[in-house]
Amino acid sequence: MATLLPPSPATATTPPPAAQQQKVDYLNLPCPIPYEEIHREALMSLKPELFEGMRFDFTKGLNQKFSLSHSVMMGPTEIPSQSSETIKIPTAHYEFGANFIDPKLMLFGRVMTDGRLNARLKCDLTENLTLKGNAQLTNEPHMSHGMFNFDYKGSDYRTQFQLGNGALFGASYIQSVTPHLSLGGEVFWAGQHRKSGIGYAARYNTDKMVATGQVASTGMVALSYVQKVSEKVSLASDFMYNYMSRDVTASFGYDYILRQCRLRGKIDSNGVVAAFLEERFNMGLNFLLSAEIDHRKKDYKFGFGLTVGE
Which GO terms describe its biological process (predicted)? Predict the structure, then answer.
C-alpha cells in the first residue's frame, strides 16, 4: 500500500528569487531631474558643440574660486540668403571671460569684440531653492534679453518658475511616480507676442536605458531613447515632429568614451552627418575636431581647436 510522504525540500514549490519582487516604497521615491533636462542624455550624444574654422580657449585660475578665460575664434559665418545656396563670410572674434565658482554661488561673464555681453548666475538660496539667471546685451535693438529661474527641489519632485523680459512667464513641475518613471508638465505665457502654451513630458530611466517623450500645444512632439551598451559606449536616437509646420526629423547617434578621448557623432533624416572628437593630450590640454556634412544643401563644415587649462 502506497504511503503519502511529505514533499522533500528539493521538490517543495517555492517561488524563484526572480519572482519575489520587492515592494516599492512610494513615500521614498528618488528626486527626478529638472523638467528642462529630461532629454539630457540624448542631447549629449546627438548635439555636441559643433563649430567651423579654428578656435583656441585658454583658462587661467587665479585662485581656488576665481579664474579668467580667453577665447579666439576664426571661421566663416553664414548670412541669410533667399537662394538655396549657403553664403558665408570670413569672421574672427575674441572673447574675454571671468568666472567665480563657490559651492553656493557661481558667476560667469563673457565679453566679445562685436559688443555682446553674456552673464550667468547660479545661487543656492537654501538647500532646496536655487536662483538661476542669464542675460545677453547687444548693440542691436530689441535683441537684448534676460531671464530668471527659481528652482525648488523636493524629496521626489522639482518645480521651476521662470520670469523674463517681454512679459515672459513660465512654470514647470515634474514628479516621480515610480522609482524609474517621472511625469511632468509646463505652462508659459509670452505677453509681448500674445502667445501661450502648455506641455507634458514623461521620462523612464534604468541603469541601462533612458526613454523620454514630450508634447506641447505649440505642435511640438519630441521622443528620445538612449541605450547604454557598456560603461564606455552609448547609442541614442530621437524623433522630432512639428504638427504646425509638418517638419519631421529623426536622428541616430553614438557616444564612445575612451581612456584619452571622447568621440560623438550622429546622422539624421535630412542627410546631415556630424562627428565631434575630444582628445586629451595631457592634464589641461585638449584637442578638438569637429565635422558636419549636409549632403542635401552641399554644405561642409570642418573645425579644429585647442583648449588649455581646466
Answer: monoatomic ion transport; protein import into mitochondrial matrix
pTM (2 d.p.): 0.84
Q: Whole-angstrom Cα distance, residue 5 to residue 2?
A: 9
Contacts of residue 63, defined as CB under 8 A and 6 or more positions apart, other chains included, come to none
Q: Could you tell me which residues come within 8 angstroms of residue 143 by beta carbon, excluding any fewer than 6 positions away?
A: 136
From the number of C-beta atoms within 10 Å of its C-beta (0-12, 13-18, 19+), residue 207 rates as exposed
- One digit per residue, the tens of pLDDT, for the chain of length 310 reads 444 445 544 444 555 554 445 687 778 899 999 999 999 999 998 999 999 999 999 999 999 999 999 999 999 888 877 666 778 888 899 999 999 999 999 999 999 998 899 999 999 999 999 999 999 999 888 788 999 999 999 999 999 999 998 889 999 999 999 999 999 999 999 887 788 999 999 999 999 999 999 999 999 999 999 999 999 999 999 999 999 888 999 999 999 999 899 999 999 999 999 999 999 998 889 999 999 999 888 889 999 999 998 6
Say if strands 195-205 and 272-282 run parallel, antiparallel, or are unpaired.
unpaired
Assess contact for 121 and 111: CB atoms under 8 A.
Answer: no
Q: Is 36 helix (H, G, I), strand (E, B) or coil?
A: helix
